[in-house]
Design a protein that fits this description.
The chain is α+β, with helices and mostly antiparallel strands. It has one domain: Alpha-Beta Plaits, CATH 3.30.70. It has 2 helices and 4 strands; from the N terminus they run E-H-E-E-H-E. Strand 2 and strand 3 form a beta hairpin. 20% of the residues are buried. Bound molecules: copper (II) ion. The site of copper (II) ion has 4 residues, from helix 1.
């Protein structure tokens, strides 16, 4: 199990958090996603996919990484 922390820019409301949460949770091997709106910090527990895949998914959903 890998634990990846990403700093994300562009989330403005809980809708953004929910969107991103479902995008990340849908990836194979992602077992837990915790996103904090205030700090923009997303913590992801995952196997199978790499941190790069997680970053691509965040950007693909229209958010930016810091
Ligand atoms: Cu929003």
């Amino acid at each position: 199990m890998e634990h990846t922390t990403l700093k994300i820019e562009g989330m403005t409301c809980m809708g953004c958090v929910r969107t991103l949460n479902s995008v990340l949770s849908a990836l194979p091997g992602v077992s837990h996603v915790a996103i904090d709106l205030e700090s923009g910090i997303a913590k992801i527990d995952h196997t199978l996919v790499t941190a790069d895949t997680l970053r691509d998914a965040v950007e693909g959903a229209g958010f930016e990484l810091v």
